[in-house]
Amino acid sequence: MATDNNEEAIYHCAARLPILPEILTPNGFENDTREAHVPESINFLARPSLRPLTVLDLPCELLGLIFEYVRIGADGPPIRYEPNLYHDFWKRRPGQLRDIQNVRLTCRQFCNSSSHLLINYVQVGLQSGSLNRLKEIASHPLIRRGVRVVNISLKFYHSKLASSFEEFSAACFRELYNDIGRAGRENTYTLEQATTVKVAWERACFGTNVDEPPQFQSCLEALQAGHAVHQKRYEDQRVLLTNKLFVQGITTALAQMPATKTLIFNDYLIHYSPGQSRKDWRHFVSNPTKLAIHYSRPFGTLHSNIHYLDSELPINIIPEVLGALPALKVTLEHLYINIDGVYNTHLLVQDSQTCENLRLLAKKLSYINVAIRRRDEYNLSPDHISAGMAADMAANIYQFLSVMLDTESLKAISLLLYEPHSWKPTFPSIGPVLNRLKRPKLKYLGLHYISIHAHELELFVGSLIPALHSNTYEEPVCIEFNTSYLLSGSSADVDASMSAKPYIDWKRVTEPYQG
């Protein structure tokens, strides 16, 4: 019986592979040929019993590349030498983000391979809820691997608005007044509702000698509710700053996110705390309480000036966060600082140990963009900035820049120090800061509203020649000179000199001011 089964098995094998009888026959093939055909025969015979391969059989690394293609696209992120876009590429593509959200819900393997693409960009503000969200992301073993950019908003809840109901009410009235003035073609009913609230708030703030407007009591109670929210948020902010909990939370989170190589500090971009509505004022005019809470939001220096308030910008967070990173083995490649008005620049100057830590951090930097605007065009700041004060501000900023630019690793430098209504800027030359050492890897230099001597600019360009004439030289260095001030020398001579250098791509956007 066993013999019959064996013969039947051989028959079926022979039917599947006609060459098998010849392999099994001693004289059918030479030994070398037989050895070559046996593996093929075994694979052929075993194939019907193998499980068909599916997408789940792909390695996790390959699945990750496929999902990255879905999230980012075929071209990948843009490559730019001018670091002025805040890497907003990572926060775009909402459709692809929804695809990743759906992929994570498909199965465990898809979730593990795609979770790092869910969040590329995190914005954090001076509130516990915002900081806790960053901590939660940093503690997730999968999601944290994909965070590339952290944006730290320095907008603050003002102490004077928290301590004074009158100041808070006046600020809400100005915000609503300005919003109505900027409104375009709006629904008539919406404008009528907004005007009713505006009139009631004006009476509550300034006690105008008019009859009590409709809904006055409810609008007054709305301001009181909004003020209570502002006080709560201010107290939360005060605890974070006073106890250094904000700096500790930021640095600890960065140490847990190895892919984060870009750090942004700003008081300019709009920041929304967790739970705060992203809708504009039009959606709340029918509910004065929600409208008052909507206006209970952090200010930058520009908004502080509009409301006749001193700036309380916690600019010390910048050197404190950056100075703590080397000890935690955190490296950065891109640093962006965008401050829309600052008067307490002395907080940028730290102790010698922090400065040394900043130098260590700068050794790995490739791109640095520092934009600081002195916003006094409204002439609303309580303290008038004299020339001496401006010189002190420049000294503080330059001392910070001299530390952060003390590296040869930089590929791009962009500097903007804007002084409104300044035909003769009070800031000294940036030349000594730029010319401290050579820049062998530099590919872009942007000087915007910067003071410099012509000979210092020539000295800087001259230091680029050895690197440009090396075997690795591929393209000229782009130098952008935008609305800057020549303290000495002629702009025509500078243009002629730069245009004559083939290794320089000279871009003068506007005619420079001349001393």
Written description of the protein model:
There is one protein chain. The protein is of the alpha/beta class and 515 residues long. 46% of the residues lie in helices and 11% in strands. Among the domains are: 2-49, no CATH class; 58-114, no CATH class. The protein has helices at 2-16, 20-24, 31-46, 60-72, 94-104, 108-114, 128-139, 159-163, 165-182, 188-206, 216-242, 245-255, 288-294, 301-306, 317-324, 352-362, 387-404, 431-434, 454-462, 465-468, 491-499, and strands at 121-124, 149-153, 262-266, 334-339, 367-373, 412-418, 444-448, 451-452, 477-482, 485-486, 504-508, 513-514. It has a nine-stranded parallel sheet. A three-stranded parallel sheet has the order 8-10-12. β1, α7 (128-139) and β2 form a beta-alpha-beta unit. The longest helix has 27 residues, at 216-242. The relative contact order is 0.07. Mean pLDDT is 79; it is low at 78-92, 271-277 and 377-383.
Structural descriptors:
515 residues; 21 helices; 12 strands; alpha/beta; globular; 9-stranded parallel sheet
- What general outline do the C-alpha atoms trace? globular
Q: Which strand-content bin applies to the residues?
A: 5-15%
Classify the helix fraction into a percent range.
40-55%
Low confidence ranges: 78-92, 271-277, 377-383
Largest sheet composition: 9 strands, parallel
